[in-house]
Amino acid sequence: MTHFAVIGPPFHSHLRAMEALAGELLARGHRVTFVQQADVATMLHDSRLGFAQVGMGSHPRGSLKAVIDRAARPGGPWGIRRVIADMASATDMYCREAPAVLRSIGAECIIADQMEPAGGLVAEHLGLPFVSVACALPVNREALVPLPVMPWRYRPTPWGEQLNLHSSGVYDRAMQAHASVISRYAAAFGLPPRQRLDECLSLLLQLSQTTPGFDFPRTALPEHFHGIGPLRSALTDEPAMDIPVATGRPFVFASLGTLQGDRCGLFQRIAEACRDLDVQLLIAHCGRLDRRQERRLLKAGASWVTDFAPQRAVLARADALITHAGLNTVLDALEAGVPSLALPIAFDQPGVAARVVHAGVGLKLDPRLANRRRIVQALRRLLSEPGFAQRARVLGDEVRAGGGAPRAAQLIEAVLEAESPGLRSAEHG
Hints:
By secondary structure, this protein is α/β, with parallel strands linked by helices. It has helices spanning 12-27, 64-72, 77-105, 118-126, 158-174, 176-188, 257-260, 264-276, 291-300, 311-317, 327-335, 349-358, 372-384, 386-401, 404-419, and strands spanning 3-7, 31-36, 50-53, 109-113, 130-134, 205-208, 225-227, 251-255, 280-284, 304-306, 320-323, 340-342, 362-364.
């Protein structure tokens, strides 16, 4: 049995993916502890998980809401700087406090989200093996691949390479506050110099929810990088869809995720467009709207409005998805063979939307310019042109074949067996 410690951002989509992987490891006889700030303890669903608190002084109970609110609506340059400062503060907290906590709980291996470089820094400092997991788009850099936050398409040309180089420089300058923390602790821990997320990845094993067919063409990924598809609990563990969808009329699911679900105006334009097309629409706002706003959306044309919906069950019945282009939501749509209309808002969503278009599994619109007419035009294409759904089904086969959490657990056990005879995986059967 191995005692794993999980380190990553405290956001819903990242926690759910990591919790699915943790559940698989628990089922194989291992022990898993989430090392996180206090507010995350109540966000975890599996009672078998351990929890070790960090940040009692800097990230006390109740402080996460402000971080999430800033991430949900970063706004202009000053707001983005505040979000970057939050990232830097979290990395500083982990590097400052996690070493002692990990020693105290007897952690033997770290599972580190790619978006939290402290996982790799602390693991190297303590001499622990660690696995990097890309819950969002992978941060691994290649000259011809735009950074995940960039909205443009893949251009395998000298001009495209120069565009990526220039934009990477702009991004790195914007991330300087975070880079300074990474650099400072790398020096303090006696590690080689580094400043970027991609410089803190595991040399042992890297796992990504993004499958090869959904990413831009890659030529420089390490051999220990594996695209294993979405990290999810078993579909049988999720509730069934209980809304009365009528046959004979298209059914569309709209979700803007757990951070951006408060954009009532955008939801209203979606509802009006679906009414124009005589389409059944389910909106899930993830608890970000009130009753008055729900009634407003029903009046605008939505068939149903709810806080949370069993997403995979809904997508199994849907004809199209309208989404903020969160990676988890888009992968769930691909698993179901459903095309997407992507309305990217923040973080790596522009990059996910660009890949939706590149793969031919959907269309994208700028949410600021996505008026009722444009949504009608895009949605009509998704529903009437069979090629989008056909390509989504092909990619869905790849997503399902990736292996998800079970394969991730197998790969982790295999590399630990090879890395150290002292870290042996549990025997099964």
